Amino acid sequence: MKVEKISDFTVYRLSIYLRCLDHLAVTGVTTTSSKALAHQFQLNSAQIRKDLTSFGDFGIRGVGYKVDELRNRLRKILGLYNVHRVGIIGAGHLGMALADYHGFPSNPFQVVALFDRDPSRVGGKSPQGIPIFTLNELKSVVAREDIAIGVLCVPAEEAQEMAALVIDAGIQAILNFAPVRLNIESGVKVKTMDLSMSFESLSYFLARRQPEVS
Amino acid sequence: MKVEKISDFTVYRLSIYLRCLDHLAVTGVTTTSSKALAHQFQLNSAQIRKDLTSFGDFGIRGVGYKVDELRNRLRKILGLYNVHRVGIIGAGHLGMALADYHGFPSNPFQVVALFDRDPSRVGGKSPQGIPIFTLNELKSVVAREDIAIGVLCVPAEEAQEMAALVIDAGIQAILNFAPVRLNIESGVKVKTMDLSMSFESLSYFLARRQPEVS
């Protein structure tokens, strides 16, 4: 496995494939193929084969993939059989929303703590009971609660400083919701979420429905 | 242009390319190529050429792409030169967070209204001043404010009902943050956001760093 060469985009596609397979499983489909997946979910069959082959050969020539087997393999590759404990920095609206977000079934990400610099928030809880700690407690809570993923829900101008605190507390995987690119030392994984990207497929759709502005 | 055949994944890739080009422009790069883009941002050069060709031929053989020109074309294709007015259904933590989220610069999505069924929230505002209306006012506010995109920030069990209200109010593009697949009539565009997908590239990274569990 040349795992070092696997990009974020490949991992994103594996997540997509897993959701397609989940959908097939729910609807009772037990075998599929790269062609069938591509056709049903508007994917690229050559890309599917290439992505899966880079993790070993799952398919049977002429038969395709067993849905359950491929789901299990993808869940294992994506690390979804482990529970990942999550700490959120910033207990504003976004932090609180993510703390209580359970997502689709079998979500293996478990938020166990919120952190905030605002003393009026510290000691409180999210509506579903996730406790809010001070930033001073970050290091000890991360160790005690075995937190592996830090989520930054802070303003753009605070994100770099908070990332440094999170890394200093021993966390090596960061999900950043602040609209700013972070400079991070190697060995730490950062994913910056740009929520406006989710709007762009809608604006594409809307642009196609309106008279072209040229 | 065979625009009907362009999938959400293609549009997603166009959004990615645009962000790569934005990055190049900021760093003073004026020309690039599918190969250079693929190398710097871990993309697939053949895919880039295929995606761009489906919208017309932007490149110059042997020279590549002019960064500014390609950015403008992508922004036009993605409908980003129009301002898109947005209404958010559900003024809980997630709705409030999105209402005040400005994103990266030149975000053309403008939240103008929140809606909620909880009377204690109605009449209030987000921290940055976006007003909260009742669901009864949905139709009139959508018309008056020229809202084109509806964002669902409601519990999973309410999402289908809220989608129907939004469509009834004349909105044809929905961004759904509730973890449930919606059944929607054709002609309306729905994008369901699964926030746990953003965590999966991190769990992939973490799984690679730990001893394999087989």
Question: What can be said about this structure in brief?
Answer:
The structure is a homodimer of 214-residue chains. Chain A is α/β, with parallel strands linked by helices and 214 residues long.
β-strand percent of chain A reads 15-25%
Distance between the termini of chain A: 48 Å
Classify the helix fraction of chain A into a percent range: 40-55%
- Globally, the shape of chain A reads elongated
Strand order of the largest sheet of chain A: 5-4-3-6-7-8
- Which CATH class of the largest domain in chain A is shown? Alpha Beta
Poorly predicted tracts of residues of chain A? none
User: What integer is the average pLDDT of chain A?
Assistant: 88
| CATH architecture assignment of the largest domain in chain A | 3-Layer(aba) Sandwich
Oligomer: homodimer
CATH homologous superfamily annotation of the largest domain in chain A: NAD(P)-binding Rossmann-like Domain
What class do helices, strands and sheet pairing of chain A give? alpha/beta
Biggest sheet layout of chain A: 6 strands, parallel
H/E series of chain A = HEHHEHEHEEHEHEEH
Computed Rg of chain A:
20 Å
CATH third-tier fold name of the largest domain in chain A? Rossmann fold
Number of domains of chain A: 2
Largest chain interface and its two residue counts?
A: A-B, 68 and 68 residues
Number of strands of chain A: 8
